[in-house]
Amino acid sequence: MSHDSSPTQFERTTDRTIDSATLIEGLPGLGMVASIAVDRITTQLGLERYGTIASDDVPPVASFDEGRVRSPVRVYGGTNPDVLTLQSDVPIPPNAFRPLSRCVVTELADLFDRAVFLAGAPAESESQLGEVVGVATTDSLEAELADAGVTLAEGPGVIGGVTGALLKACYDADVPAMILVVRSNPYIPDPGAAEAVIETALEPLVAFDIDTTELRERAEEIQRQMQQVAEQLQQYQQESRQQPATPMFQ
User: In Å, how far are 8, 34, 224 from 163, measured between CA atoms?
Assistant: First the structure.
């Protein structure tokens, strides 16, 4: 029996053909690290909107940019290199985790060879800020993490929230996936952590070159822009204690 409250569907909006891409997830999470990093990647690579994910489980808000309304959950794509990005202007509520994850593995998986998910974890000291560890679903992706110089997460742990749901869905469906966990500020959006995960992990893994100067120069502005979404995310996390919203390692 399904627990989904409504259908969640990918709606393609272009005739562009993309396959064998790397999907990079940029949904709101702790420190807004994924959102900040993937927004920069999408802009830097000039990715075009490839489609949207429509769901009644996503908050019914009117998202806009530069005076034009747009769908809150979007997929962008490009072929130099072959990359897809998944972004959202609103936090994903817990009841949408399962249908969104199912949509990604059933309607998008034919477009990509591997998925890279991003998650912030609370830094316990200033020296930890920007540290990145990885978790993989296959031997080959584990080897890719090692070749990229990304340390594998030690010991047992749990990854919750929408990122954990996506990772589990890929694992269950035999869709190659990995998650990059970056230590970040647990209280405010953290452009510095986003810069770290791009430079130390994503660039060697995806073989692209992203200019992160803007993340440093516009750090305060980016924090202000992301703060409202971060506050909404905290509210969802407080209202639902079904699963941990951030990675937990023992």
Answer: 17, 10, 24
Token pair for 107: 């309607």
Please state the φ and ψ torsions of residue 114, each to the nearest 5 degrees: -155, 155
Report CA-CA distances (Å) from 115 to 58, 136, 242: 22, 10, 25
Contact 102, 108 (CB under 8 A): no
Q: In sequence order, what are the beta bridge partners of 79?
A: 82
pTM of the model: 0.89
pLDDT tens for the chain, 250 residues long, are: 344 445 899 999 998 889 899 999 999 999 999 999 999 999 999 999 999 999 988 878 777 888 888 888 999 999 999 999 999 998 899 999 999 999 999 999 999 999 999 999 999 999 999 999 999 999 999 999 999 999 999 988 899 999 999 999 999 999 999 999 999 998 889 999 999 999 999 999 999 999 999 998 888 888 888 887 777 777 766 665 544 456 665 4
Tell how far CA 184 is from the center of its chain: 15
Cβ proximity of 100 and 62 under 8 Å: no
Neighbours of 155 (CB within 10 A): 6
Residue of 48, 68, 36 lying closest to 227 (CA atoms)? 36
State the burial class of residue 30 (Cβ atoms within 10 Å of its Cβ: 0-12, 13-18, 19+).
Answer: buried
Residues 6+ away with beta carbon under 8 Å from 133? 150, 151, 152, 153, 154, 180, 181
Paired residues of 133 in beta bridges: 151, 181
Q: What are the residues whose beta carbons fall under 8 Å from the beta carbon of 167, sequence distance 6 or more?
A: 117, 135, 137, 159, 177, 179
H or E element, residue 150: none
